[in-house]
Fold this sequence. Notes:
This protein has helices at 15-30, 49-54; strands at residues 3-8, 34-39. With 62 residues, the chain is of the alpha+beta class.
Amino acid sequence: MPKLLITGTHGTDDPTRATMPFHLTKGAKEADFDMSIVLANDSPLIIKDAVRESILGVGTPH
């Protein structure tokens, strides 16, 4: 199984970029990739339930 590591560096200041690592990971898992995500800079803030549920990227699936 191929492996990928996705790095997220954006937080709530840019919701579209903040959600991209999760959308990419979901799609890659569906394509049978072994996935990992590393969150750096402001991106660990989106792990909080209240933040994660309220953040919506532009043009991304909800």
